[in-house]
Specification:
241 residues, Rossmann fold, 2 domains, two-stranded antiparallel sheet, globular
Length: 241
């Protein structure tokens, strides 16, 4: 059995602390979906089953719900999601695909890990102007895929790698701003560690957030084509020293 205090805490955890006195009919679809998640979390289950958790949600609420689920996974919950959306499936550690009721494919997408590596390298190479070793996680693979290259004795992004890194940084930092403004929880100590906004939805989320220039950590967010300023960040200027 749960009490009112536990229920209120569960709702605050999903960013609904200001909506405790509202009726279901007064909540948006995304808010109702977050109530369902709070209800599922009330007894701290180790396993959460989610059937189409983003069904019938707009892009912004989808991003909020998926960021919340990613946060639950980081906190130790195991999640099994059913979805017809490939961009949602790509976030999983493991994907099991069914076609006409039969197992069609099982794989380890790894896309989320690649995005994280690109964000880390962008911060080091383009913002902090630090060097990286070929032994660093993911560097050898990105060199083999021509996303990184050696130039003047240093590792740097190729044009294709730079474009992918800018996209990854934008999606990750928009997710940080979105979570900071909608969910009542502390900010992660390291920038770029949030599950990114799903590819294809970053422009809608950016517009919803009124085109933020920096993430909550103070690092710049690369603007999109519809944002004020250039479409892509220019490379950092070389030091004169």
């Amino acid at each position: 059995m749960t009490d009112r205090g536990e229920a209120e805490e569960a709702l605050r955890r999903v960013g609904l602390g200001e909506r405790l006195g509202h009726l279901p009919s007064q909540l948006s679809g995304g808010e109702q979906q977050r109530v369902c998640i709070a209800r599922a979390l009330i007894n701290q289950p180790p396993l959460i089953l989610a059937d189409e958790p983003t069904g019938n949600l707009d892009a912004v609420n989808e991003a909020i719900v998926m960021s919340l689920l990613a946060d639950l996974h980081q906190r130790g919950h195991t999640l099994i999601l059913v979805t017809h959306d490939p961009s949602i499936a790509a976030r999983a550690n493991r994907e099991v695909r069914l076609e006409h009721g039969r197992l069609a494919q099982g794989e380890q997408p790894g896309d989320l890990e690649l995005q994280g590596v690109l964000v880390e390298l962008w911060q080091l190479l383009e913002e902090d102007r630090a060097g990286v070793s070929i032994a660093r996680r993911g560097v050898a693979q990105l060199l083999a895929e021509s996303l990184l290259a050696f130039a003047d004795g240093k590792i740097g992004f190729t044009d294709r790698g730079r474009a992918q890194a800018v996209s990854a940084v934008r999606r990750a930092r928009l997710a940080e701003v979105l979570l900071a403004r909608t969910l009542s929880r502390g900010l992660l100590a390291e920038c770029g560690r949030e599950a990114p906004v799903a590819a294809g939805f970053e422009d809608q989320v950016c517009a919803f957030l009124d085109h933020p220039a920096v993430c909550p950590h103070g690092r710049p967010i690369p603007p999109g084509a519809d944002c004020p300023g250039p479409a892509l960040l220019e490379p950092a200027a070389e030091s004169s020293e």
